[in-house]
Amino acid sequence: MKRSLVLKISAIVSALSGIVILLGVLYPIISYNSYSTYRFSAKKPSLISPISEKVKAAETSQLDYTRASNWFPGGAATSEFNSSKVKHYTLSIPKLDIENAVVSIGGEDLAESLIQYPGTALPGKNGNTTVFGHSIAPIFYNPKNYLAIFSTLPTLKKGDEVDIAYDGVSFKYRVESMFEVLPGDIQVLEQNVSDSFLTLVTCVPPGDPRKPQRLIVRARVVPPESSNANIGN
Questions:
Q1: Distance CA 182, CA 203 (A)
Q2: Which CATH entry fits the domain spanning 2-232: 3.40.50.300, 1.20.58.340, 2.40.260.10, 2.130.10.10?
């Protein structure tokens, strides 16, 4: 009798645990969709497809999104960066507890580092430095795990800061805008040389295996004199 009662209690606990886990995975996706409807609904510049023409015909749900070649048209390597002396630099986002995350220039494995889109401007140069990062369900967020590192990127707001240390020089960028685009949209990688810009990209909603949209976080470099003035205030 006691054994039967224990088994029933164990079954109930297991069922409740399963429901809690399921809700923990689904709720962030549902709530993100509701939240993003009004926050990221404005019409903005579009994003070049992270999925190349070669793989668009394949079942995207079966693609390995930890591989940069499944995100970047034509693969992750370009001759422009093959001769570059600097292959890696670091990126920090204080608000998200991301500290000195490695960014690989023209790299391939998103499980090992953040990836700078080949052909985009180097940090501190006039143009648009574009960095892709992986995301999973926010409940599994870990700023030291590159598979989860951009899971909370949607929580950034205008004015938040991103720090980059490139080849011994530090650059501070400040978020100016955030918006969503479809994977097939074009032109967010456009090189606006009027200033130094930083674009962060991840799949949203975080944790959704369909990878239906891309979140774009666009920031502009903060001039050194402006940074010093803010520190003094």
A1: 10
A2: 2.40.260.10
Q: Token pair for residue 110?
A: 């998103």
pLDDT of residue 159: 97
- The torsion of the CA quartet 220, 221, 223, 229, rounded to 10 degrees, works out to 80
| Side-chain half-sphere CA neighbours of 216 within 13 A | 30
Rounded Cα gap, residues 63 and 90, in angstroms? 27
**pLDDT tens readout for residues 102-118:** 999 988 899 999 999 88
Picking from 103, 126, 127, 128, the residue whose alpha carbon sits closest to that of residue 116 is 103
Query: DSSP letter at 223?
Result: P
Secondary structure (3-state) at 24: helix
Q: Hunting for tokens 């080949």 — which residue is that?
A: 118
Task: Reduce the DSSP state of residue 190 to 3 states and report it.
Answer: coil
Domain ranges of the chain: 2-232
Whether the pLDDT of residue 75 is over 50: the answer is no
Backbone angles phi, psi at 77, to 5 degrees: -105, 140
Are 94 and 163 a contacting pair, CB within 8 Å? yes
Euclidean distance between CA atoms 105 and 131, whole angstroms: 9
| Rounded CA separation 179/200 (Å) | 11
Helices (H) and strands (E) in the chain, counts: 4, 8
pLDDT value, residue 66: 81
Q: pTM of the full predicted structure? A: 0.73
